[in-house]
TrEMBL record:
Lineage, uppermost ranks: Bacteria, Bacillati, Actinomycetota, Actinomycetes, Mycobacteriales
Gene Ontology MF annotations: acyltransferase activity, transferring groups other than amino-acyl groups
Signal peptide: none
Pfam family, one: Thiolase_C_1
Transmembrane annotation, as ranges: none
The Thiolase C-terminal domain, residue ranges: 262-384
Name of the molecule in the record: Thiolase
InterPro entries, per the entry: Thiolase, Thiolase-like, Thiolase_C_2
Organism this protein belongs to: Mycobacterium europaeum
C-alpha cells in the first residue's frame, strides 16, 4: 500500500478583526495559505494534481468553493472537490486525499480551509447565528430564542454535567489548561495567563457556559499538502489511520440524544494504524466549547479508567500530563478555524516545531473533528515518518 504523507503546511495570520483594507476574503486567505504550504513542501502549483476545499457552513457570497482552483492558480487537476461535513470536514478531506492517492487517482493533493466570518460593523457571532435556517426543528428553536451554537451547547453541557455528576470546575480546568498551552504558541489569539479567578470573572453567556468556555471566530486559512511521492518534501508526517462515525441523531422525547457516539471513529483510525490508545503521544481534539473536550475524552476512552473531569483537573492534559492535549491552545485559546486547528497543531508537534510548547519526543498524534451538535465524528492518527 502506498504511504501517504503530509509534506506541506501553510497558515495565514489568525485575526480577531476584519481587514480594514478588504484584502482578507476567504479566497485571498486561502491563496496565501496555499502558497505557504507549497513553499513548505518545496513544490509549485503545477506539481499539485488534486485540490480539496472546505469552508464554513452556510451559503455566503464569499464562501470558498471549487472556483478556488482557478482563483488560487491551480490547473490540470485530476481531483477537485468541495467537502462539507461541518467540523468533521478537515479529517474527511485528509481521508479523501489518502484514498485518491492510494487508488492512483491523484499523486499530490492540497487540502485548504479558509474562513472570514468577522465583518466590519457586525458582531463576531453574527456569521453563525443563523446557521441551520428557519425551517423545521431549527425554526422552532430559533422562535424559542436558541440562536446559534452557544445556547444549544449550554443545554448539552447541563445535561452532561447532570448525567455524570461533574461540575463547573471541570469546565474551568479545560479553559485554563488550554490557555497554558496557548502561552507558548505565537499564533494563538488568546495568550494572556488565565487562572480560576479569571475564568469565573468571565461573563455568563448561557448557563453553564461563560465567555471563556467558548471559542472565538477568526479570519484565517490553513492549507495542507499530501503526497505518496518520496521525492517531495523533507519533513513528513504519515497518515496512519482514519475513521468516521455519524450517529444521525433524532432529538425526540424519550431518548438520550445530546451526546454519545464517535468512539468507533477513533477505534477504526487506531485499528488501521495498528495502534492502541496508550501509543498516542498527543491528542488534538475539536474544542469549540470546554464541554466538548470533556465529552470527547470520555467518549473516545482517552482517560483510562479516570473520569474526564478528574483527568483534566489533575493536569493530565497539560505539559507534564499523561496525554498532552490541544497543545497550541486548541480552538478555545489558539484559534478557531474548525478542524484545521487540531490538524495544524498535530503536524507542528510531530515535526518537532512546537517551540516553547513542544511535547518532547512526540511521534504519534490523534486528531479529532466533530460536526454540528456532535452529530459527526472524524478521527485521524498521524505518525512522524522515518
Amino acid at each position: 500500500m502506498t504511504n501517504v504523507d503530509i509534506v506541506g503546511l501553510g497558515k495565514t495570520r489568525m485575526s480577531l478583526r476584519p481587514s480594514p483594507s478588504g484584502d482578507a476574503t476567504p479566497v485571498q486567505l486561502a491563496a496565501r495559505a496555499a502558497r505557504a504550504a507549497l513553499a513548505d513542501a518545496d513544490i509549485g502549483h503545477r506539481d499539485v494534481d488534486g485540490l480539496l476545499v472546505g469552508s464554513s457552513q452556510g451559503v455566503r457570497p464569499d464562501r470558498l468553493g471549487v472556483g478556488f482552483a482557478a482563483q488560487g492558480g491551480f490547473g490540470d487537476l485530476r481531483l477537485l472537490e468541495h467537502v462539507e461535513i461541518k467540523g468533521a470536514t478537515t479529517v474527511a478531506m485528509i481521508q479523501r486525499a489518502r484514498h485518491a492517492i492510494t487508488a492512483g487517482e491523484a499523486s499530490t493533493v492540497m487540502c485548504v480551509f479558509a474562513d472570514a466570518p468577522l465583518v466590519a460593523g457586525k458582531g463576531s457571532g453574527s456569521a453563525y447565528a443563523h446557521s441551520g435556517g428557519n425551517a423545521g426543528a431549527r425554526g422552532l428553536e430559533r422562535a424559542s430564542g436558541l440562536l446559534g451554537s452557544v445556547p444549544t451547547y449550554a443545554l448539552l453541557a447541563q445535561r452532561w454535567l447532570h448525567v455524570t455528576g461533574n461540575g463547573a470546575e471541570d469546565l474551568c480546568a479545560v479553559a485554563t489548561t488550554a490557555r497554558r498551552w496557548a502561552e507558548g504558541n505565537p499564533d494563538a489569539v488568546n495568550r494572556e495567563p488565565l487562572d480560576e479567578d479569571g475564568y469565573h470573572s468571565s461573563p455568563m453567556i448561557s448557563e453553564p457556559l461563560r465567555r471563556l468556555d467558548c471559542a472565538r471566530p477568526v479570519n484565517g486559512a490553513v492549507a495542507i499538502v499530501l503526497t505518496g511521492a518520496r521525492a517531495i518534501g523533507t519533513s513528513r508526517v504519515r497518515v496512519r489511520g482514519t475513521g468516521r462515525e455519524h450517529p444521525v441523531r433524532r432529538r425526540r422525547a424519550g431518548a438520550e440524544s445530546w451526546f454519545g457516539g464517535g468512539r468507533r471513529a477513533v477505534d477504526d483510525a487506531l485499528g488501521q494504524a495498528g495502534m492502541r490508545r496508550g501509543d498516542l503521544d498527543v491528542a488534538q481534539l475539536y474544542d469549540p466549547f470546554t464541554i466538548v473536550t470533556l465529552i470527547l475524552l470520555d467518549e473516545y476512552r482517552l482517560t483510562g479508567n479516570a473520569p474526564a473531569g478528574e483527568f483534566v483537573r489533575t493536569g493530565q492534559l497539560g505539559p507534564d500530563g499523561a496525554l498532552p492535549t490541544n497543545t497550541g491552545g486548541g480552538q478555545l485559546s489558539g484559534f478557531y478555524l474548525q478542524g484545521m486547528t487540531p490538524l495544524a497543531e498535530a503536524v507542528i508537534q510531530l515535526r518537532g516545531d512546537g517551540g516553547a510548547r513542544q511535547v518532547p519526543g512526540a511521534t504519534t498524534a490523534l486528531v479529532g473533528g466533530i460536526g454540528g451538535r456532535m452529530d459527526h465524528h472524524a478521527a485521524l492518527v498521524l505518525e512522524r515518518a522515518a
